């Protein structure tokens, strides 16, 4: 069995809708919602064994 299984069309649609809804919430509730969504995404990625370290955007000062 492969480590990553293919998503079926329904799963891809669900993921896209969830992403869109999350973006709408961030637009409405701002920084607090963005931070909350980041925590959730981090936890999900960690559960899948994916490091977020290389995905971070560095903030130049």
Task: Describe the protein.
- It is a single chain.
- The protein has 61 residues and is an all-alpha fold.
- The longest helix has 39 residues, at 9-47.
- It contains one helix and no strands.
- The mean pLDDT is 85.
- It has one helix at 9-47.
- Helices cover 64% and strands 0% of the residues.
Average pLDDT over all residues: 85
Instruction: Summarize the biggest pleated sheet.
Output: none
Percent in helix: 55-70%
Termini separation comes to 46 Å
Q: Tell me the strand percentage band.
A: under 5%
Q: What's the total count of β strands?
A: 0
Tell me the Rg in angstroms: 14 Å
SSE pattern, N- to C-terminal: H
Low-confidence stretches at least 5 residues in length (pLDDT < 50)?
none
Supply the helix-strand structural class. mainly alpha
Shape: flat
| H/I helix tally | 1
């Amino acid at each position: 069995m492969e480590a990553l299984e293919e998503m079926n069309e329904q799963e891809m649609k669900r993921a896209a809708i969830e992403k869109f809804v999350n973006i709408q919430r961030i637009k409405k509730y701002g920084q607090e919602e963005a931070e909350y969504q980041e925590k959730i995404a981090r936890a999900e990625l960690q559960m899948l064994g994916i490091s977020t370290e290389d995905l971070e955007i560095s903030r130049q000062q």
